[in-house]
Amino acid sequence: MKNKNKEKFNFKNGWKNNPEGEGVEAKTPFKDFGTERFDPERYYSKEFMKLEWDNVWTKKWLLVCNVNDISSIGDFYNFKIGKESIIVIRSSEKDVNAFYNVCPHRGNRLINEDFGFLEKIGCSFHSWVFDLDGNNEQVLDKETFRKEVLDYDLNLSKVRCEIECGFVWITMNDKAESVREYLGPVATYLDNYKIEEMKVVRHVNSLWKANWKTGLEAFYETYHLSTVHPETQPMMEDYKVQIDNWGNGMNRMIVPFIIPSVRYEDRSTVNESTSFLLEDVGISSEQFNGNIEDAKREIQIKKREISERFNLGYERYTDAELTDSFDYGIFPNIQIGCHPEGVFLFKFLPHPTDPEKFYLDTTINYRVVEGEEYSVPAWMGLPEDTDKSGKIRPEIVYYDENEKPDLGLILEQDSELIPYVQSGIRSEGFRGALWSEQELRIRHFHYELNNSIRSN
Ligand code: FES
Ligand SMILES: [Fe+2]
User: Which residue, of 4, 65, 81, 340, has the fewest CB within 10 Å?
Assistant: First the structure.
């Protein structure tokens, strides 16, 4: 590997995307998360899976869906997490309720669809009916129940639910702080993207043969890019990546785009990837005379022009936010790749029983722009036939563990690799991960995981 572009690395400083960066680009000060190595059993044991269920999944705030997935009264979304299915449903213009998806009579699941619309919640076993607040409205043949039985709570079991940053969140923990407090500074940074104005235009759910953390960790670092995704090298700086860690396990990496990796030989001539991005905003790459740095600048200027023209309010973004990838990590299981045109949401969901399987649930939340001349950025990788009107909420496309998920080249490369990582972690010869400071978000994640397990 060529190192001529590399500067000396000091782990206490890390990298700063913008040396003068303040506000959203401010680098969090160094905090020591140590150098410990953890027992790999956390990636496969049922005991550890149970610890996570008791201390993480049932205690933390969990991201359910985009608030526009349940925009009208009666709209619901079925959120599956481990053994639970939780229904979030809009009960009024302002309110959203969440219930365990279970009938208090004999335990039947009330809703089996992923999402939809209901005027009342009815049970398919003995026709009990509940209103959108979960109150029981009908017990069939009520006279055949003894009074003592009817005196029990006949309503649905509620779950805490809040709307924040354009998403619906639930927690099974009645004592949890508000979502906003939980998210800390990340809430403000996400607010800027106005996700409540974005619509899901693509939703893919795929089952992977690995622990959910094995999956998440591959999305929390760029250290593997030059090896697994070499095609990113001409367009992405994978080495000098700013990493920020906040409280409650929130973190971020800022990956500079439209600048080749330090590992890449020619970092100035406009290459194929840069030409593609120039063309994408309507600049002819053939007539473009500058170098890559100029191209990045031009693309930023052009995006601001597009914003003016379509009234998109990009003044609220820094130049870096216009072009680079701001990837926010929300403990326990979320990564959100943020761009003004849309955000890519990745949820890593544990399998109900098998610690060595997880669901990768990905949505593209897209800012619908009215106007024939506005074109959807090609780098978003939306399939040709995608409906971008935002009027129809797309069905979830499912892939089982033996299918190759249609997620674009990069994620397909990951999906091929990650089961091998899981299999290796299982070996007696593996003594626990040795993380570099490029993988600091992973270390920070485990620091939070350990704290959650210890403190409850
Ligand atoms: S289980 Fe729902 S009405 Fe009987
Ligand atoms: Fe990857």
Answer: 4
Peptide bond into 332 cis (omega under 30): yes
Q: In what order do the strands lie in the sheet with 136-138?
A: 121-122, 129-130, 136-138
Which atom, in ligand 1's list, is nearest to the CA of 127? 3
Q: Is 306 helix (H, G, I), strand (E, B) or coil?
A: helix
pTM beyond 0.85, yes or no: yes
Token digits of residue 382: 């939306």
Residues with CB under 6 A from ligand 1: 103, 105-106, 108, 123, 125-126, 128
**pLDDT for the residue 182:** 98
Per the CB < 8 A criterion, the answer to whether 341 and 197 are in contact is: no
Instruction: Give the nearest ligand 1 atom to 140 CA.
Output: 3
Q: What does the pLDDT read at residue 372?
A: 82
152's tokens = 């029990």
d(CA 182, CA 319): 28
- Residue in 100, 101, 103, 157 to alter for ligand 1 test, most ligand atoms within 8 A of Cβ: 103
Does domain 23-58+193-455 fall under CATH 3.90.380.10? My reply is yes
Indicate whether 127 pLDDT > 60: yes
Cite the residue boundaries of each domain of the chain with CATH code 2.102.10.10.
62-175
Q: Residue 295: which of 319, 317, 278, 282 has the closest Cα?
A: 278
Specify the domain boundaries for CATH 3.90.380.10 within the chain.
Answer: 23-58+193-455
